[in-house]
Amino acid sequence: MHVESSRYTGQLPDVTSLHTMANAALGAETPHENTELRRELDEVRLRLLGAVDAARGAEAERAVVEARVKELEHQHHMLKVERDELRRELARLEAGRRSVGPRLARRVVHGVRRRLSGG
Amino acid sequence: MGERLVPAANPPSGPEAAREPVKRQRIRFSVLIPVWHPDPDHLERCIRSVVEQTYDGWELILVVNGPQPAAVESVLRHNADGSDGPVQLIRLPENRGISVASQAGLDLATGDFVALLDHDDVLSVHALGAFAAELERFDDVDLAYSDEDKLAHDTDERKMPFYKPSFSMERLRCQMYLGHLLVLRRTVVDEVGGFRPEFDGAQDHDLALRVAERSRRVVHVPRLLYHWRESPGSTAMTTDAKDWAWDAGRRAVDEHLHRTGFPGSATPHPKAPGVTVIEPRLRQHPLVSIIVPTGGSRRSIHGIDTLLVETAVTSIVERSSYPNYELVIVTDSKADVSLSARIAAGVERAAPAGEPMAARRPGGRSSRPPLRFVADDQAFNFARACNLGAVRAAGDVLLFLNDDTEITMPNWLERLVMYATRPDIGAVGAKLLYGDGRVQHAGVWARGAGPAHRYMGFSGDHPGNFHALRLAQNCLAVTAACLAVERSKFESVGGFSTAFPLSYNDVDFCLKLHQAGFRNVVDCQTEVVHHESSSRDPTVRDWEMAQLFRRWRPLLMADPYDHPCNLAAGVEEYPPAPIDIVERKAYERHELVLTGRSRVVGRSGNVSTQSTPVAGVPS
Predict the structure, then answer these.
(1) What torsion do the CA atoms of B559, B564, B567, B573 make, to the nearest 10 degrees?
(2) How far is CA B88 from each of CA B62, B81, B105, B182, rounded to the nearest angstrom?
(3) Does B590 touch chain A (CB under 8 A)?
(4) Between 20 and 30 A from B542 (CA), which of A93, A102, B189, B573?
(5) What does residue A108 show for φ and ψ, rounded to 5 degrees?
(6) Taking 90 as the threshold, does the pLDDT of residue B322 lie above it?
(7) Confidence band (pLDDT; 50, 70, 90) for A24?
(8) Which chain A residue lies closest to B395 (C-alpha atoms)?
(9) Nearest to B512 among A33, A45, A56 (CB)
(10) Using CB atoms, which residue from A59, A64, A78 is nearest to B554?
């Protein structure tokens, strides 16, 4: 049994056949339940369960990371969309500022500041 | 229109507009309204709610069920002028029931999807647009439903919001919880034979069951898109209003069970009209191995010093009617040497006189179950103890049971086996009650801060949200204090992970099953007493929680069987605040958008529409 030591490769071990082998080795009913053989077989089967669990766990952790990567990619995309929109808005404001001239723009800004400060 | 979805107006703009589906007109809905003696004002309001939809890919088919009062006729004439517009009118010479009327409308429908609307109810103006956005995301949706609330008969006050879970076939058997708005793919409705008059009163439940059996994917749109009018005599106002309708529902479920080969039969719930109890009718009785890890703890119960495992085991033997089970007692290193003798003596005392149970003979009636002891001589690890019991067990079905439980229902094993042996169901749990009758467990849900028991501490008689505590239903996980699973499924996911020695091994196990495509079920119609954590330290270790999140973060942040609005309410499933406040909290928290697809930004993952691929169909 090399299952326990094998690293997760994305392919789950053939659980059914391994368990079938273990079941066959164990036999139906063993009269001496605490014999060494029984203990060894128990350990093998526990290790087999552990190996499958490790593979499932690794699969789950990989899925979590992949989901996080997708989420970040989506956020990245959305931020770029928002940035482009803000740039367009900024360009529109710049154009507006130029059209009204620097003095008027300063007066508008001054007025806004005064309102913001409660004056 | 009195819409109070909040924020009231939130059209997509900026970045959100870029995400809006472009193909908005691809899907066409046929909205069916059978009309029979409604309040004219309510009918007018109902029709206007369709006409004023923000989405324009629809046709409205009004089926007039026999002669109507003059005021109703006036409303109908006003809204359907007989032209080829989107509002069509069909007149039936006499009232032949809602199914005949609905079928007449269906025969005329040309849409891709059929939406069912009652003649005095009201659609949210966003309803069809929200459904269209979701249906365009997947090509294989055959059934979709939304959340709903009630409209007071006279005042139009919105109340009793039903924030529904993701699709649960187990719940649909027990209750027509899909309710409104129900949208079905036209071709599938035709395939299953349309509406059936013999189920009038529960014709939608009957149709939903037949469509769900064939559906490739079911979608839940988690928004209040349907406002159900309370009318005198309607089931919206009182659940006692239509006994004949509940009986039709029970018959529909019974027929569904027969059609699908489900080993059960439907009976009405004694306390909850409209809720069906599924009684097991097992054709086979596979050997069940009841695995009880124990350290031989004692506790005072009702003032009597009690060896917990002895109580658990004797209650199983005394009260269980299941004919084919074995007991596997896993003792830890701290257990007293006399423990096994005490348990064996208890089993002998509890078992009525008779032959030992024929362990491998299905259906073999006997009284004394096979009993085996397994010694776990390593440091205590609950997951390992369960796994050790499992590898020693001979049964096809494994049932993990804490030693501080007590069996009260004779057919508890039959009930759990009925679900556990279904090919698409993974773990099955029961409703667990403390010794004083309060709820200890009714399934596990995940609400961001970690898994928690639903309804913990509620009265044992409490119905739960829309009878949730009286039903079988899907949930992310169930506690291993009482958990049944088929051996093959247990082995296929590697059993309990020993990386969780004390806590969350059951949640991790159930999530592995969920990930493998199985549905986990909590059957709240099965009750077991659980004196929780009497036998071990109940403290939760932070590192175990962190490990759980490392494996299952997206699921733990967005439980498909929960709802963002329930979460925002801050209590179990009962919104303590008016609907608009609860919704605003939910929508602010999750940044759900009101048009198009709801979404979550930030670190919490997507909790938007919950789509459930039906077993065997890849998503």
Answers:
(1) -90
(2) 6, 9, 9, 20
(3) no
(4) B573
(5) -60, -45
(6) yes
(7) low
(8) A28
(9) A56
(10) A64
Out of B14, B551, B603, the one facing A57 most closely (by C-beta) is: B551
Q: Read off the pLDDT of residues B10-62 as tens digits, 9 standing for 90 and up.
A: 333 444 444 444 444 579 999 999 999 888 999 999 999 999 888 888 999 99
Q: Which CATH architecture has domain B288-557?
A: Alpha-Beta Complex (3.90)
- Does residue A119 carry a pLDDT above 80? no
What residue ranges do the domains of chain A occupy? 15-116
Contact B399, B386 (CB under 8 A): no
B325 and B336 in contact (C-beta within 8 Å)? no
Q: Please compute the mean of the pLDDT values over residues B4-12 and round it to a whole number.
A: 30
Contacts of A85 in chain B (CB under 8 A): 14-15
**Contact at 8 Å (CB) between B230 and B146?**
no
Per-domain boundaries in chain B:
15-238, 288-557, 564-613
A contact test, residue of B337, B388, B491 with most A CBs within 10 A: B491
Interchain CB distance below 8 Å, B512 and A81: no
Quote helix, strand, coil % in chain B, to nearest 5: 30, 25, 45
* Closest by Cβ to A61, choosing from B391, B491, B550: B550
- Condensed to tens digits (0 to 9), the pLDDT of residues B170-194 reads 999 999 999 889 999 999 999 999 9
The string of pLDDT tens digits covering residues A45-79 is 999 999 999 999 999 999 999 988 998 998 898 88
Q: Considering chain B, what is the average pLDDT of its residues?
A: 82
Beta strands in B36-73 (DSSP E): 58-65
Q: Is B554 on the interface with A (CB under 8 A)?
A: yes
Which among B101, B123, B150 has a CA at the least distance from the CA of B51?
A: B123
ipTM over 0.90: no
Better-scored residue on pLDDT, B421 or B342: B421
What's the confidence (pLDDT) of residue A49? 93
Beta bridge partners of B304: B301
Q: What are phi and psi of B392, to 5 degrees?
A: -85, -20
Q: How far apart are CA B483 and CA B490, in angstroms?
A: 11
At position B592, the amino acid (one-letter code) is: L
State residue B34 phi and psi, 5-degree precision.
-75, 135
Is the alpha carbon torsion for B119, B125, B127, B132 positive or negative? positive
**Can you name the CATH fold of B15-238?**
Spore Coat Polysaccharide Biosynthesis Protein SpsA; Chain A (3.90.550)
Q: Does B605 touch chain A (CB under 8 A)?
A: yes
Here the tokens at position B135 are 């249906």
- pLDDT 10s digits, B520-565: 999 999 999 998 754 455 567 788 888 999 999 888 888 888 887 7
d(CA B151, CA B169): 28
With CA atoms as reference, the chain B residue closest to A50 would be B494
Q: How many CA atoms lie within 13 A of A74 on its CB side?
A: 16
B155, pLDDT greater than 60: yes
Predicted structure pTM score: 0.80
Contact B515 A59 (CB under 8 A): yes
Query: Are both B15-238 and B288-557 of the same fold?
Result: yes
B269, B470 Cβ separation under 8 angstroms: yes
